[in-house]
Write a structure and sequence with these properties.
By secondary structure, this protein is mostly helical. Helix content is about 70%, strand content about 5%. It is built from 16 helices and 2 strands. A two-stranded antiparallel ribbon has the order 1-2. It starts with 13 loop residues before the first strand and ends with a helix.
Length: about 400
């Protein structure tokens, strides 16, 4: 169980502290922190990538027309994501989730004078609102179903309590199925799952460091993190342990293949990476859908670093050739940008799953579990996407640098 460690007899498993936020109708709503292994891993990823992006941005948007505005939102974005990661209850998670959405809107539309940029920001914002309706309904259903299981409480937003009750079989399966399905809509919009993935490639309109932060380590993995955080609800709701095919695995497998196929035909260097992100997020959701919790979280961890490296490398290329993003117009950059070439090469090998780099270990784990715990169909989807990823990433590197 990923929520029971808050008990005082297990101080090493998790730290949980709460204070009263407000009281209404005899009910106390608390706010606090829940720091366990999952949260620590996410704190490490978010802070490290955010630090690198902040440093990189000082030069990338140096002399920009809204330099201060950019950094204000970048900092607020990081703070919102950190709040989401350590949220003790679902209400707090919802507040942080929306803050992340607002910041992404402001950052994607940073150069809002150009219409495509403001259109992309609006598209990202509105697509995320579609999924957020699911999040609201899912949290509400969970609140009342937990209340029905606790005799002395009207309801509870506590993540640890909700997971414990779900794993113990004390919550109605219908309620869990409904809330898991609604929360899945939120995951599909925030984590760019097929068919709510269309905002993600358009979000490349923002400055490249923003793409690195939003689409590598933070915002797009918020959905995956939410599944991992409330895994008891999804595991019992979709009967992941007792079935080989369920909604989450199907959505993840389909996204993996669709993302890789679309990346295959792109010409814009950042769009290739955007569709590649969709594909990798599909891997994470697929892993969670077949019960491979650790494999999904491990892939989230490794993906954050090599994808951030790829985005920052592409930013270096775009900056170096004065804003050009069409790969067909690039070539021979190895001699002019040797450092970028080597960093790009290493992260390309990692995302393609070449041993001994990190991508090999995490992808291998996901594919292994999709075959053993899931279904051969999902394994086929994963393998096909992995081969496509290797092909288009090497093509991207070859067109750009050689």
């Amino acid at each position: 169980d990923h929520g029971e460690g808050h008990a005082p007899e297990h101080p090493s498993l998790a730290v949980s502290n709460t204070v009263t936020w407000f009281q209404v109708g005899g009910m106390t709503i608390s706010v606090g922190v829940l720091v366990d292994g999952l949260a620590v891993m996410m704190l490490f990823v978010v802070t490290l990538v955010s630090l690198l992006v902040h440093i990189y941005s000082t030069d990338y948007v140096g002399g920009d027309r809204r330099y201060t505005h950019y950094f204000a939102f970048l900092s607020l974005f990081s703070a919102s994501m950190l709040t989401l990661v350590i949220s003790e209850n679902t209400l707090q998670l919802l507040v942080a989730w929306e803050l992340v959405g607002v910041c992404s809107f402001a950052l994607i539309g940073h150069w809002w004078e150009e219409k495509p940029n403001s259109d992309a920001a609006l598209k990202a914002f509105l697509t995320n609102r579609v999924g957020d309706m699911g999040l609201l309904v899912g949290i509400t259903v969970l609140f009342f179903s937990v209340g029905s299981a606790l005799p002395d409480a009207f309801g509870s937003f506590s993540i640890a309590t909700t997971n414990t009750l779900a794993n113990s079989g004390l919550l109605s399966h219908t309620a869990l199925l409904v809330s898991a399905t609604c929360l899945m809509a939120a995951v599909m919009s925030k984590s760019g799952q097929f068919f709510l993935h269309t905002w993600l490639p358009d979000a490349m309109a923002g400055p490249t460091p923003v793409s690195a932060l939003i689409h590598a380590a933070t915002m797009v993995v918020a959905g995956v993190f939410m599944i991992a955080r409330l895994y008891g609800v999804f595991f019992e709701g979709f009967s992941i342990g007792g079935s080989s095919i369920n909604l989450m695995a199907v959505v993840g497998g389909l996204t993996t293949l669709v993302g890789a196929s679309l990346a295959f035909v792109q010409r814009d260097i950042k769009k290739v990476l955007a569709y590649s992100t969709i594909s990798q997020l599909g891997y994470m959701v697929l892993a969670l859908g077949v019960g491979a919790w650790t494999a999904a979280v491990f892939h989230l961890f490794t993906h954050a670093f090599f994808k951030a490296c790829l985005f920052l490398g592409s930013g270096s290329v775009i900056h170096g050739i004065h804003g050009e993003q069409d790969m067909r117009k690039m070539g021979g950059l190895k001699n002019h940008m040797p450092v970028t070439y080597w960093t790009f090469l290493v992260s390309t090998l990692a995302i393609a799953g070449i041993p001994p780099l990190s991508g090999f270990f995490s992808k291998d784990e996901v594919l292994y579990h999709s075959l053993m715990d899931g279904n051969i169909i999902f394994w086929g989807m994963g393998i096909s996407a992995a081969l496509l990823t290797a092909f288009y990433m090497f093509r991207l590197g070859f067109m750009t640098f050689h």
